[in-house]
Amino acid sequence: MSALPVDNDSAILLHPHKRGLQNLDRMAQYRDDDVVDLAVVGAGAGGSVIAQRLARRGWKVVVLEKGPFWDPDRDWVSDEKGAGQAGLYWTDNRIISGDDPIELGKNNSGVGVGGSMTHFAGYVPRLHPSDFEVHSRDGVAVDWPISYEELKPSFERVERELPVAGEFWPWGDPHGYPHKPHPVAGAALVAWEGARKQGIEMHMGPVSITNGRFGNRPHCTYRGFCLEGCKVNAKASPLITHIPDAIEHGCEIRPNSFVTRVEIDDATGRAAGVRYIRDGAERRQLASAVAVCGYAIETPRLLLNSVCRRHPNGLGNAADLVGRYVMVQGAPQVAGRFPELLRMYKAPPPEITSEQFYETDERRGFARGFSIQTISPLPIGWAEHVLAEGHWGLSLREYMRDYNHWTVLGILAEFLPLPDNRVTLADEKDAFGVPVARFSYSQCDNDRAIVGYAKNMLEQIWDAAGAMDLLTIDRYAHLVGGARMGFSPDDSVVDSSHRVWGIDNLFVVDGSVMPTQGSANPALTIMALADRWARLV
Amino acid sequence: MSLRDQAHPNPHRLEHVNGTTPQMVGRYPDYDVLTQVDHWDALTRRVVLDRVERVPPIRFFTPDEAQTLKAFCDIATAQDEEPRIPILSYIDEKLEGGVGDGWQYDDLPADGEVWRMVARALDEEAGGRYADASEDVRVEIVHRFSKAELQGGVWGELNVERAWGVVMRYVVQAFYSHPWAWNEIGFGGPAYPRGYSAFGSPHLGEREPWEGEESVHYDPVRDAKKWRLD
C-alpha cells in the first residue's frame, strides 16, 4: 500500500465494504441566499478538486451538479448497455455538424457527481513539457501562458491521490508512479510482442487504478468494466478521490441542480452567483466567486447563455472566442485477429502505452504526433467496430462469434486547435427551455496526416505480431478547449490564473481552458490545473 | 442472394447445446452465461434477466411501423428463425423512454423520427409492405441501405448513410446486450463481484473454469469472402 496523501482523507473516509459515500449525512447545507465563498458549476475532474482544496482551507463551497449523487452499489451495473441506462452519460440533446461531426454521449461526456471520470478508461498520462510551447517549438497552434514546470508539482500531487499505477515513464519529463504496474492480460501481451518486433517501446500504465489496497479502496478485480462505472472503488474518479474529503471539510455538493446562467451584478460587473433549476423550480445561489467547471461543451454553452447588459455576446466573449478552439483527439482503432482465444473483455481496457511518437519529427511530414494505447471493447463496442467496416447480417454475426480472437490497439492523435471547431447555441432548446449546444468539427490536413500515419503504424504492429486479419474503425476521443487560457483578452477567454478576462471573480477551471492537448488523455491534466488554481486563488 | 444459400456449408450451422442462443447457433456449444447469475450482484442480475424474462411491449411504434421494422431488424442481424432476440422491443423501449445517446446530426431529425422515416422508406422501397416482400427483396433493400444507395421518396429526406449508422447503433446495442448473444460469442457477461483471475498472462488461451470452450475455429474474413456473406 502506498502512502496516503496527508492533505486528502478521501480514501479512508470511504467504507471498506460499501461503495457509496459514508459522510453524506453530515454534509453542510447552505441556503440559496447565503453568500458562499465559491459556487462551483459541475462536480467533475476540475470542480471536485477545487472544491476539496478550498473546503480544506475553510472556504464555504457549494458545488452545483446537474446529475445525481452516485452510489455505485445502488446505481451502477456491471453491464455495457446498463451503464447508459443508469444515466452516466450526458444524454440531453446536442447538435453536431461540420465535415467531421463528433459523436458525443458515452464516448466523451458525463453527468452526475464525479463527472465523466466515473466511466473513463483510467489512463492518466501527463502532458509533455513540449505541449506548453507548441507554437515556439513547432510553429503550429499556440503556447500556453504557463509552463510544464509550473504544473509539475500538481501532476505529482494528483498522481499520489488517485493513485496512479504504472512503470517508470521514460517519455516527456521522465517520472515514476506511486503504484507498481498491473499485470498485463493476454490480449495486450500480443500487441506488446508486435510492438517490440517493430522496435516500438511500450510500457505498462499509467492508470488510476489501485494496485493494492489504498485506504479503504480495494485492489482492482480485473473485471473489465471500467467504462461502465467502477463498482469496486478501485478505479479513481472524483466521487471517491476528492468529494469525500470535500464534504468532510464543509463543502456542499448539491446534485440534480442544473445551472442555467451565471449572474453578473450590473453595478459592479462582478459575478453575483448562479441561477439554477432544481426539482423543476428556478433558484439562485449567491456567491462571492464562481468557478465554471462544465467541460468543453457545457462551459461555453453556459458562458454564451449568460448574456446580460454588460456582456451582450456572453461572458468572456468580447473577442468572440468563447466556444472556439475545441479539440478532440483522433482515436482510430485497429483490431488484430489471432488464432488463440484472447478474451479481451477481461482486465481493465487500459494496459500498455507508447509515447514514442508523441513529439514532432519532421521526417514524418506533419507537426506533433500521437500515442498508442490498448483498448478492449466489450461486445457492443466490438459490434460497432464490425459495423464500421460495412458488415451486417450473417457477416456481422460471424465476426461477432469471433470476438474472443481479437484484440485492439488505438491511437490518440493530437489534433490542432482551429477557430471554426466551435460550440455555439442551437435553435433547439432543452427540457428547461435553455438553448442546447451546437458543436461543429472539421479536421485540418495535419490532423488527417497524423491519423493516416498512425493507423499504418498500428497495422505494422499487428503484422509483426502475426495477426491473421485486421479491422479498422475511425473515431475520436476526449474534448478540450472552448474557453482557452492565454496571454491577453484578444487571444483567449481566461488568463493564466483561469480568470475570465474582465470579470474579476469568475473563473473557468476545467478542460475547456486547455490551449492545446498533446496526445495524452486529459483527466490528469484537468485535475492538475484545478490543483494549481486552488493554490493561486 | 438469400440468407440460407444451400450451396455452401453455412457457418451459421453451429448447433448450440446448453442454454439459448439466437437461432441456436454459436461457437461455444456448452456455454450458458445464465448459469452464472448467482455470481452477479443483484442489481446487474435484474437488469440482465429482464432482457430475457420481461420483454417490453411495443409502445413507441405503430403496429405497421413495428411490423416493418421487426422484419428489418431480423434481416440486419440474420435472425431467420426462432429463437429470436426481440430487438425491436428494446429499441422501442429506449425510444419511448425519450433518453437518446446524447447527440443529433444537424442533417437528421431526432432518432425516433429517423426510425419512423426508415420504416416508411423501407415500405416504399418494397413497393408495398417491406415485411411481406420475399426474403431476396428484403435482403437486397438492406444491402443497398447499408451502402447508402437508396434514393428518392422518403430516402431523399434523409442523409441515408448517417441514418444507417443511427439505426444500426440501436440494433447492435439491443442485440449484443442480450445474454443469448453472449452465449453465441462466448462473452463472460457481468463480472461483479467475482472479477477474473485467468486472463491469458503468461499463457495465452487460459480461461476461468466456468468459461466456455470453443468448438471450432473460423476466420471470419476468410469465411465472409468465401461464402459471400456480405
Give the helix/strand layout.
The complex is a heterodimer of chains A (about 525) and B (about 230).
Chain A: H1 10-13, E1 38-41, H2 45-56, E2 61-64, H3 72-75, H4 80-86, E3 95-97, H5 134-138, H6 148-161, H7 186-197, E4 203-204, H8 238-241, H9 243-248, E5 252-254, E6 258-264, E7 271-278, E8 281-286, E9 290-292, H10 295-305, E10 327-330, E11 333-337, E12 352-354, E13 370-375, H11 379-388, H12 393-401, E14 406-413, E15 422-429, E16 435-440, H13 445-465, E17 470-473, E18 476-480, E19 506-508, H14 523-536
Helix pairs in contact in A: 2-14, 6-14, 7-13
Chain B: H1 42-53, H2 63-76, H3 87-97, E1 104-105, H4 111-126, H5 135-146, H6 160-175, H7 179-185, H8 220-226
Helix pairs in contact in B: 2-4, 2-5, 3-6
Summarize this, please?
With 537 residues, chain A is α/β, with parallel strands linked by helices. Chain A is built from 14 helices and 19 strands. Chain B is an all-alpha fold and 230 residues long.
What does this structure look like?
The complex is a heterodimer of chains A (537) and B (230). Chain A has 537 residues and is an alpha/beta fold. Helices cover 25% and strands 17% of the residues of chain A. Chain A has 14 helices and 19 strands. Chain A has helices spanning 10-13, 45-56, 72-75, 80-86, 134-138, 148-161, 186-197, 238-241, 243-248, 295-305, 379-388, 393-401, 445-465, 523-536, and strands at 38-41, 61-64, 95-97, 203-204, 252-254, 258-264, 271-278, 281-286, 290-292, 327-330, 333-337, 352-354, 370-375, 406-413, 422-429, 435-440, 470-473, 476-480, 506-508. In chain A, helix 2 links the parallel strand 1 (38-41) and strand 2 (61-64). In chain A, helix 6 (148-161) packs across helix 14 and helix 7 (186-197) crosses helix 13 (445-465). The longest helix of chain A has 21 residues, at 445-465. Chain B is mainly α and 230 residues long. In chain B, helix 2 (63-76) crosses helix 4 (111-126), helix 2 (63-76) crosses helix 5 (135-146) and helix 3 packs across helix 6 (160-175). The termini of chain B are close together. Chains A and B meet through helix 4, strand 3, helix 7, helix 11 and helix 12 of A and helix 1, strand 1, helix 5, helix 6 and helix 7 of B. Strand 3 (95-97) of chain A pairs parallel with strand 1 (104-105) of chain B, so a sheet runs across the interface.
